# Entry
Amino acid sequence: MTVLDKRMTPAEIVGVLKDGMTIGIGGWGPRRKPMALVREILRSPLRDLTIVAYGGADVGMLCAAGKVRKLVFAFVSLDAIPLEPWFRKAREAGQIEVLELDEGMLQWGLKAAAFGLPFLPTRVGLGTDLAELNGLKTVQSPYPDREVLIAMPPIKLDAALLHVNRSDWRGNVQLLGPDTHYDAWFAKAAERTFVSCEELVERMEDAYPEDATSNEIERCFVSGVTQIRYGAHPSSMPPAYGWDMKAFKAYTDAARDPGDWTVVAQRFVDTNEAAYLSNFGGKEAVAALPLPIF
Amino acid sequence: MRDITLADLCIFACSEAFRTEREIVATGIGPIPRIGAGLAKLTHSPGLLMTDGEAYLVEQPVPLGPRGDYSPKFAGYLPFSRFFDSAVWSGRRHAMVTPTQIDRFGQTNLSRLGGTHAHPKTQMLGVRGFPGNSVYHTNSMFVPAHSPRVFVSSEVDMISSAGYNPARRIPGGNYSSIDLKRIVTNLCVMDFGGTGQAIRVISLHPGVTFEQVQKATGFALEQGALIETPLPGEELLAIIDQLDPHSIRASVIKDNPPARPKS
# Structure
């Protein structure tokens, strides 16, 4: 019989991941990032990962810790701090392989993977350096227009990691906040999707039936669930809390000389989540972070 | 009437770039393009759609910076998760951005400088949404410090957005939606109305000469029917003040001089 109890510990989730896997990370820049799961990876011996993300500090930290063999990205940014300092360092050291894509192409590749297609056609990339640098092939329309398009290959993920607002133990998730970016497509492009959540409820239909339209990812796409309150810090998790720009500034400043990640990691990763949160004023301080103004 | 600064003049020029009869999304990235888009919407181009900078559509452009008691009123919804479907890939958008490099074909770069793709000398943002924007909808640029470092003499280091370069066209590809409209800088306004869609100066800011602009540009510029870039009037200045109550625009251009140099 199908086991519907999908609860796992963060360590169990990371234990499922293997060296060399392709892992998609949800969220966008400094928003809605499953940072606690990323920190769990940083505490593990995992290596040689291919990371696919609309990148923020998740990408910067994994690059800094030498976990990344290849990065599939369109940008890596902390928004108010436009250039992600640790990602820059890794790139300027020639340390990582990259597949650089347009933002729309990236979600298009996830969709191709979700639908099991060999490619999805697009005009995006025409007239730029993307096709040549990435070895992207073209395809010709079989219809009378005969248009030549770029054939965007699928971005298949071995696993996707997401941070969501709510879940029950069966993986009925609810994604709140003004924008959930491409989390749903990361989930659908992945062999298995693991979510951390702010709030774990017993049964979603009893707890929050009025918010059922926030179930943007059906539970058949969710393999594992773990509750990690404040698990997106220092990224934002609306409506619960905003991003921690003070922490991002400290993280950015620390990338300058000597820029030793092992020292920085003592504060920004630490040995466990409770210790990590205490480095930033504890739960109360994170809960009080205001939502950003644009 | 208050003093008119170069930032005010650039905002007015940006708002003219956004002028349209269509209902499309106006995206101004950075204070001056953003205020310019807001000014366009509140004056000659009410059809423009605009977001609060995050996910909601607003009919009243959101002022920059801390808002005090003001809270944006949401008229609609356009999150990133719908952005390619609703705005970019449907061609219903005009974006104005500030690339790191621009070449004579209007190709731009904000990905990396120098070195190779595997080992760049300077890593910047990545191509972001530039490739898609460039083949699908109208685009303009704002450059706060016009110089040969921005307007480069050769091609840009990494072509992040497509321009009018025949050498970069694949036979059979559809490039018909490439639509580069204006480049507004601290010296002048340019368009792509030159020979073979070459970049052409169409107006010079007060006190600026064509030779000065040419000297600050890494490639040869064409001259349109040059006029002096117009200054915004009192009513427009009031709207600019309302859209930027903390005068964040003053920090964009070095020293933010008066629009008309004091003689």
Residues 122 and 136 of chain A are 11 Å apart (CA to CA).
